[in-house]
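Help! Submission page says 'invalid entity' but I think these are all valid:
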Amino acid sequence: MSRLPRLAAITADTAGWGFFLCTAKELRVSRSGSEFLIFTLQDISAQITAKLFDEVTRFQGEFEAGEFVRAEGAATVYNGQLQLVVSSIRRVNPEQDRLEGFREEDCVLSALRPIDEMWTELTDRVRAVADNHLRVLLFRILADHEAQLREWPAAQVIHHAYRGGFLEHIVKMAEVGASVAKAYGANADLVLAGVILHDIGKLQELWYEGGAIGYTREGNLVGHIALGLLVVRETASGVSGFPLELRTQLEHLVLSHHGSREHGSPVEPKTIEAFILAAVDELDARVNQVRRAIREDAAEGEFTTWNRRLGRVLYKGT
Amino acid sequence: MSRLPRLAAITADTAGWGFFLCTAKELRVSRSGSEFLIFTLQDISAQITAKLFDEVTRFQGEFEAGEFVRAEGAATVYNGQLQLVVSSIRRVNPEQDRLEGFREEDCVLSALRPIDEMWTELTDRVRAVADNHLRVLLFRILADHEAQLREWPAAQVIHHAYRGGFLEHIVKMAEVGASVAKAYGANADLVLAGVILHDIGKLQELWYEGGAIGYTREGNLVGHIALGLLVVRETASGVSGFPLELRTQLEHLVLSHHGSREHGSPVEPKTIEAFILAAVDELDARVNQVRRAIREDAAEGEFTTWNRRLGRVLYKGT
Amino acid sequence: MSRLPRLAAITADTAGWGFFLCTAKELRVSRSGSEFLIFTLQDISAQITAKLFDEVTRFQGEFEAGEFVRAEGAATVYNGQLQLVVSSIRRVNPEQDRLEGFREEDCVLSALRPIDEMWTELTDRVRAVADNHLRVLLFRILADHEAQLREWPAAQVIHHAYRGGFLEHIVKMAEVGASVAKAYGANADLVLAGVILHDIGKLQELWYEGGAIGYTREGNLVGHIALGLLVVRETASGVSGFPLELRTQLEHLVLSHHGSREHGSPVEPKTIEAFILAAVDELDARVNQVRRAIREDAAEGEFTTWNRRLGRVLYKGT
Amino acid sequence: MSRLPRLAAITADTAGWGFFLCTAKELRVSRSGSEFLIFTLQDISAQITAKLFDEVTRFQGEFEAGEFVRAEGAATVYNGQLQLVVSSIRRVNPEQDRLEGFREEDCVLSALRPIDEMWTELTDRVRAVADNHLRVLLFRILADHEAQLREWPAAQVIHHAYRGGFLEHIVKMAEVGASVAKAYGANADLVLAGVILHDIGKLQELWYEGGAIGYTREGNLVGHIALGLLVVRETASGVSGFPLELRTQLEHLVLSHHGSREHGSPVEPKTIEAFILAAVDELDARVNQVRRAIREDAAEGEFTTWNRRLGRVLYKGT
Amino acid sequence: MSRLPRLAAITADTAGWGFFLCTAKELRVSRSGSEFLIFTLQDISAQITAKLFDEVTRFQGEFEAGEFVRAEGAATVYNGQLQLVVSSIRRVNPEQDRLEGFREEDCVLSALRPIDEMWTELTDRVRAVADNHLRVLLFRILADHEAQLREWPAAQVIHHAYRGGFLEHIVKMAEVGASVAKAYGANADLVLAGVILHDIGKLQELWYEGGAIGYTREGNLVGHIALGLLVVRETASGVSGFPLELRTQLEHLVLSHHGSREHGSPVEPKTIEAFILAAVDELDARVNQVRRAIREDAAEGEFTTWNRRLGRVLYKGT
Amino acid sequence: MSRLPRLAAITADTAGWGFFLCTAKELRVSRSGSEFLIFTLQDISAQITAKLFDEVTRFQGEFEAGEFVRAEGAATVYNGQLQLVVSSIRRVNPEQDRLEGFREEDCVLSALRPIDEMWTELTDRVRAVADNHLRVLLFRILADHEAQLREWPAAQVIHHAYRGGFLEHIVKMAEVGASVAKAYGANADLVLAGVILHDIGKLQELWYEGGAIGYTREGNLVGHIALGLLVVRETASGVSGFPLELRTQLEHLVLSHHGSREHGSPVEPKTIEAFILAAVDELDARVNQVRRAIREDAAEGEFTTWNRRLGRVLYKGT
C-alpha cells in the first residue's frame, strides 16, 4: 500500500497510509445497531472526517483524540464531502515512525506562510509605531503572549481555524489596515493596535492543545470581547504614564470590533479607526471563509455546494 | 401672585411662583424670527418644560442651567404635554429666599422613598449574605461608591431618571430578586450581587451634577456594561482569596444583564441567576416607565397618549 | 438481569429491565435497508429515546404507543444524548407485573411536587381573593377544569412537558406573581387571575391521553390564546353581575401574555398587571427549560452541549 | 367671497367659503408664544388640515370637533401638503344655512360609490351562498350590524378612513375574493364569509360619531381580531345546528387574516381560503392607500413626495 | 409482479413495476459501511425518492440520472414520507418497452392541465391587448421563447416544479391578474405584461433537461430578476417606436415583482400594477405550495406534518 | 459690512455678505401665520440652511433655486445646527459681481482634491489594466461619461454629496481596492472595474443641474443597480469579442455591490472580488459620512450630537 499524498491533494479514489493528528474521536451506534468510530484527522494541509467500521473493538484502544496516528484507508465521497474510510489505525511510535518520515509539524493543520516570517513582519510593524506608550504596550502584549500568538488558530470553526491562524489573521489585517488607514488619513498606529488587540481575549476564551480546541469557562461566561478589554486595561496599567485617552481609544477598538450590537459588540464604532478595524476584520474573516469553502468543495462544476454559513453558493471560476 | 403647588400637582390652569432647579437651558429662534428661551425646571415631585417669550434679553442672564431659580408663570398644554410659560425668572438668593421657604432638597426631582431608608434596607441585605468573599466585596462596592449610589439617577432619560433613582432601582430589584431566587431555589446571594453590580459601570458612564446629567468619554466609548466588568475585576482583586469561579459568575451577571446581544450584552445569560437578573431588571425598568408615563400623561380618558418608547397607549383605568 | 434505576439516574453503562410508559413508536428502515423500532419510554423521573434492532418482527406487535411496557436493555450515548438499546419488550400484564412492583403512577413522567399539595396551595390563593366576582369566577374555572388542571402538562415540548406540569407552572407563577405584585403595589388578585387563566385555552388546544399529547383541530386553527379568551368570556357570562371592566382586564391579560405580537399576542401589555404576567410567564418557562437542559445533559465538563432552542450552552457549575 | 369647490378640487391659490364637518380641534401655542387653532375639516370628497391665527379668542367658542361648520379661508402649501388658513368660522345654523345649500351628507368624507348600491351588491352575494348554516349566519351578521356596516369607515387612519369605507372595503374584497376563489377552486362561500367577518370586531374596537373616530376600551385592551372571534362564536351559537367544523374554519379566517404573527394574527393561515383572505385584504388596503396618496399629493412632477407609511415615493404617471 | 399505479396513487403497501424518469442519482455509503443508491423517480403525476440496497454494483451501471427507466420495488414510509425501495432497475429500451406501454410523456412530472390548452389561453389574452407596442412585444416574447415557455417548470424546488409549471404559473396569474386589475380599474394590459415577463429571466437563470434542473452561471451571478430586465430591454429595442415610458413601466414590473428588497427586488412597487403583480405572484406560489404539501402529505389526521418552508402545519380538512 | 469667510469657517457670531449657489428654496407659513423663506446656500467648502423673515414679499422674486446669489446675513445656532438668517439677497449679476470677486467655481460645494488630478489618477489606473477587453471597456465607460464622472456628486444626500463627489468616491475606492486586492491575491483589475462600474447607473438614476439634484423617472422605477447592469451589458456588446464569462463577472460586481438583499442587491457576493468591492464601497461611504458629521457638528465637547443616520454620537477627539 502506497503512502497517501497531503490531505489537500486527496480525491475520491485515493487509498494508502499516512501520519496524522487525530483531533476528535467518538464511538457511535449506527441505525443498524452496529458500532463504528468517527474521528477527525489532519495534516499540515487539510483536515478530513474519518470512519472505521470493521474491528471496532480492536482499534478503539489504539488511539485517542490529541494523539498522532498512522492510518490506512481509502477516500470516498459522502453527502458531497470527502471522507476517509479507515481500515487500520494506531498511535504513532515516534522512534520507529520517524524512520518512515513522521514529523509532528507535518501533521498539524497550519497556515500556509511560515510562522517566523509572519512574526517578523508583525514585530517590524510594531517597531515603527511612533507613539512611545503605544509601542511599549504592543511589545508587552507580544512578549506576554508570544507562544500563543505564534501557534493558535483564530477561531474554533469559522475562519483561520488552524495552527498559526491567529497570527495569519492579524498579520494580514495589519497589512490591509495599514494601507486603508493611510488612504483615509486615519491614525495608522491606532489601527495596528486595534488589529493586534482585537482578538487578544481569545487566548483566554479558548483552550488549544494538541490540535484540539474548545471554550474555557471564562470564554463561555465572559467572552473574548470583554476578556480582551481586561487584557488592555491591565497591560496599560503596567506601562508607566500611559495616557487615559489613549487607553480609552484602545478599549473602544476592542469592544466595538464586531461592528454592531447584534454581532456582540456592547458599543458600536464611534471613531474612524474603529470603523476601519471592524471592516478589515470582517473582510479578512470573510475572505478566509470563502477561500476555504472553495478549496474544500468537492462538487463538480463552477460553483460550490450550498454554503450554510454564508447562505449561498460560491463561484469557483472556469 | 400665589405660590405654585408641587409640579406634580399642577394642571393646565395653574399660575403662580415657585423655587426650582433649572437643569437645561437653550436660546432658540422661532420660525417667526423672534428669540425665546426654552428650559427645564424640576422640583422634588416632577419636571416640566418651560418657555419664556417676553423680555428674553433681560432674563437670559438671570439664570443658567444647574442653578436654583425663582420663577413665575402659568401652565398650558402644548401637544398634549403640560408646559410652563414663564414671565419672570431669576437665580435664587439663598439667604433671602430661605425666608420664603427655599430648600435645595425640595427642588431636586427625587425618589419617593427616603434615601436613608433605602440605604439601610440595602446594607441589611448585604449583611445577610452567607459567602464571606462575596459579602466583603459587596460592602467594599457600597463603601467605595456610597455617595454616588445614594444620589444618582439610574439613567439619563428612560427610567428612574431622578435623584435617588439608582438606589431605588437596585433596592426594588433586590426585593423582587430575593423572592424570585427563593421561589426557584436559585443562589439568592448571587442574584443580590448581580442586582448591586449590574449597573455599577453607570457611575463612570455618566456624569451627574446639579441635577444635570450626561455621558462621559468612557461612557460613550466603553459603555457601562464593560465599565462595570472592570469595577468587578478590580474590586475582586482587592479581596484576598476571592475565588476565581465566583468572580467569573459575577462578571457573567454584569455582562449578560441586558439579556441578549441586540440589547448590548456581549454574552447572553447561561446561569439561572443570570436569567433571573435580566428578567428582574427588565421588569423593574418597564414598571417604572409605565408608571411614569401614566403619571405624566395629561390626556383625557382612560388611556394615555401614544407612548413612543413603548410603542403603545397605556391603560390608566377607570 | 437486575432492575434498572429510575431513568433520571441511568448513565451510559447501565443495563437491566424496568416498567415504563411508551409514548411514541415508529418503524424505520435504516440506510442499510434493515428495519428497526424507535420509541420513547418514560417513568416518573425522565424520558428516554429507545431503539430495538434485533427481532423487530417479533417485538413489533408486543406493544404500542400509549401502553405500559416491560423492557430490557442497555443505555448508550448517541450524539451526546443517552438512549436505551432495547433487547426485549412487551406490554405490561397488570396482575402479574404488580407482583414485581409495577405501578402506573411510577411510569408517567411527572412533576416533582405532589399534585394534591400544589392543588391545595392554588385553591388557598384563590380563597384569599378579595373581589367577590373575581373569586367566584376563578373557583368556577378550577371546578370546571379540575381533572385536566391536575394532570396535564403545560406544553407539548418546550417546557413543563410532563404530568402535572400545567399545575406546577401556574402554582409557581402564582407564588412569584404574588411577591412581584406586592413589590410593585399592583393588583395581586388580577395577577393571580392572569396566572390561572393565561394558558386555560391549552386545555382545548391540546389533547393529552396516556402520556401522549398533540394538537386538536381548534388548537391548530384557533390556538390557545384565542381559546382562552373564549373560556373567560363564557365563564364570566355565567357569573351574575360580573363587571365589564373587570372582564376586559382579564381578557387583556390572556391575550397579551406572550408579551409581543411576534410571540403571538394580538395585543401587547397595556397595564402593569399584564406586564408582570408576561414577565413571570416568560421567566418560569425559561427557568424550567434551563433546569431540564442541565438535568438531561450528558456531556462532560461544566457546560451543556449546544442548546438549539436557547441558542447557547448553559453553565452546569463546578 | 365666492364659494369654495369640493375640497378634492382645491389648489394652492383657492380662497372662499364652504360648509364642512370639523373632526378634530386643538388650541396650540406657537413657538413665538401666540395661540392658534389647528383643526380638521372635511367634506364628501376629502379632508384638510386647517389653521386659524387671528382672533383666536373670538372664534374658539364658535365651533367644536364633531360639529358642522361654515368656514372662510384660503389654501396654502405647508411642507408639501395643502392646508386651509381660515379667517372666519362658526357652527352651522341648519335652518338658515340650508338656504345656502348646506346638506349634512355633503360634509362627511364618503366612499365614492353610493352606499345603497354597495349594500345591495353585498346582500346579493350572501343570498347566493350555498351552505344553509353559513348563509343564515351571514344574514344575521348583516342584520345585527347593518347601521354600522353601512356608515363606518374601515380604520382610523391607514386605509378606507371615511364614511362607507368599511362597506367599500368588504364589497371590493368580496368581488376580488370571488374571482380568486374561483380561479383556485377554493370554497368561495368561505372566502366571502371571511371577507364579511374579518374586520367585524372593529365595530367594537372603534367608536365613530359625527365623523370623529377613536378606540374604545375593548378596542385597546382586546383588539378587533379577538373581538371579531367573539362575534363569530356568539352569532354561530345562535344558529341552530351550526356545524363545529365550519365554526372553527370561520374563526380561523378571522384570527389569521393579518397573515402573520408580526402583523397581529395569533394564528397564521393554514387553509387555502385563509391564505386568499389575507392576500386580498392586504392588497385592498394597499391599493386604497396608494390611490389616496397619489390623489392627495400636491408635489409637482411624476412622483409623490416620500410616503412615510409605505416607505417610498409613488409613481403618478405622465 | 403487477404494474404500479401512477405514483400519486401509491401507498405504503404498494409493490410492482413501472416506467419512470430518473432525475437524480447518487451512490452513498451507509453508516454501517455498505453502499446504496439513492435516486429520484417521477411519472406524470408525482415524484418519489427511491433507494436500492441490494446488488448495488450490478445495478449502478444500469441507469443514469436523466434517463427513462423500468424499476421494480415496494413503497415504504420513512420519516413520514413515502419512498420506493427498488429491487431491480434498468434503463428503458424504447422499442421493446413501448410494447408494454412505455410513453415518454407519461414519465415526466407535469402540470395537470394540457399544455396546448394553456398556451391557447395565454395567446388569446395577448391578442386582446389594446396597446400596439405592448402587444407586439408580448408576441415577440412568446415567439422567442415558445419551446421553453411550454415545457419548463417555474422553479427548481419551491413551487410549480414540474413540466409545464412555468406556463401553468403564468396562465393562472394572468387569469387572477385580469380580474384583480378590472376590480381596481388598473391597467390590465400592463398587469398581463408583468405576468408574462416577471419570471422570463428564469429561462436563462436555470437549465432544464431531461427532467433535471439547475442553475446556470448567469443564474447564480446575475439572477432571474436582472436577467429578465435585460430580456425586456433587448426585446423592446427590437420593437420600432416602443415608448420609453412604457418600457420603464415594464422594467419596473419585472424588477419589483418580489415585492420588497428582503425578497430580492432591487426596487419596490411604486405603481398600482406593480403592487397587483407582486400580490398575485406571491399568492399563486403560496397556493401551489399549500396544495402540493397537502397532496404529498402521508400523515394521518386532519393536518399535514410540519411544513418547514411555510413554518406551520396545514389543514387537510375532514 | 464685511465679506463672510468660507462657509466651512463660519461660526455662531459671524455676519457679513458673500456669493453662493442656492440649491433649494421654499416659502413657508410659520405657526404664527407669517410667511418666511427657507433655502439652502453653498459655496465650495460647505452648505448651510438659510432663512429670511423680513420683507419676504420683496425678496421672494429676487432669486430662485439653481441660481448664484449675493446674500447678507448672520449665522445663529438652531437646534444645534448653524443656520444663516439672511437680511438681504439677490441673484448674481455676473459682470458687475465679478468685480467683487464672484467666481462660479467658488460657489459650488466641491470635493477637496482638484478634479483634474483625480481624473489623471483614475485614467492611469485604467491604463495599467492587463486584460485588453477589460481595459477597452473601462476606457469606453470613461469616455462616454467623462463630463458627468468629473462633475457629479455620488449621492443626493448620504455621502459624497457635492461636486466631484462621484469621482472622489471611485478614486478613493480604487486606491483602497488596489491594496486590498493585492493583499488577498484577488484579481485587481476586476476590483478596479467594479469600482468604476458599481455606481455608473447613478448617472441615469439622478439628474444634477446647477448644484441641485434629484431622481429621474428611471431612477425611481428601475434604480441605479439595474441601470448600471444595462450600461455594462450595452458597453460590453460594443467591445468586439468581449468574453461572456468576464461580462458576467462585471455584471455580478455591479449587482452585488450593496452586499446583501436587504440593502438592495438582487444577488449577493459570490466571488472574492465582489466581497472586496462591497466592503470597500461600504467603508468609503461610512468614512465620508463620519468625517462630514464631525466636520459639520456644532456641539461643544468631544462628541457630536446624535447622528440619526448612524444611530450614535461620534468621537471628535480631544
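Support: the input was valid. A stray whitespace character was the problem, and the output above is from the cleaned input. Chain B has a mean pLDDT of 91.
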